[in-house]
Amino acid sequence: MKNILLAFAFLLSWTGVKAQEISNTEDALEKPNFVKLNLLTLVGGKISVEYERVLNKRFAVGAAVNLRPENSLPFKSSIMDIVDDSEINSLLDGMKSSSTAIIPEVKYYLSKKGYGQGFYLAPYVKYAKLNYSAPYTYDVSVDYQGQLVYDREETISLKGDLTTFTAGISAGINFKLKNNIFLDWRIIGPGYGTSKGSLSGKMTLNADEQAGLREQLGELKESLNDLPLKFKMDYTVHGNGADITLNKSPWASIRSGLSIAYKF
């Protein structure tokens, strides 16, 4: 009889625990959606909005959309200091850009809370298209019998785009602030992939101007190839301007963020 009572007490206890677990699961999945605004990217002039849907305790799926209106390169001075190459920096100095990116991902929550809370790992893929415009200044010089006749600068306006595709993994933590308000800190998210694009400039060029532009683009090609990512650039110069092609080249990026989130 004693054993039966103990077994009955255990059954009641187990049933209560399971009922509580089911109740907690139902409460967690009652509002499985998050919409998030990345506050960190606003510093660089980019709007990043993310949607996430919790599937169960461990897994969630989502996607982010990044939009950046045309403006000067974000953190241009820092980039130019890092590159530290006169040929590349002459192109970056007056460059303006805009971008659009779509980033689907899967999140795996490792914490006990789960259901969209706690520490997570998030494999992702990122497709981005960047539009560029830049004035490019080059030297035109003419020699005659070993003597410099004249030396001047010309500027050609270049426009084009760059398409990138990367894959990586993020690590972060999502925690509750109050009621349905959360804070998602994406600590780091390195990614690696490929890029390709083109630039062109329309301008009537005489033979001396073509020679000067061709020579300087050759130096730019060497500088790009010396970078760690080794961009593969080809170019043609003609009487109506220049065409520049960035062939399939390596590309790297890092995702990070501090997002305010609303759960519904």
Which shape, going by the Cα principal axes?
elongated
Enumerate how many helices there are, as a single number: 4
**What proportion of the residues form beta strands (DSSP E)?**
over 45%
Coarse structural class: alpha+beta
What's the total number of strands? Answer: 9
CATH topology: Porin
CATH class: Mainly Beta
Mean pLDDT: 87
Order of adjacent strands in the largest pleated sheet? 1-2-3-4-5-6-7-9
Radius of gyration: 28 Å
Under the CATH scheme, which architecture would be assigned?
Beta Barrel
- Indicate how many domains the architecture comprises: 1
Give, in order, the helices and strands: HEEEHHEEEEHEE
| Terminus-to-terminus distance | 51 Å
Main attributes of the structure:
single chain, 264 residues, alpha+beta, eight-stranded antiparallel beta barrel, 9 strands, 58% strand, elongated
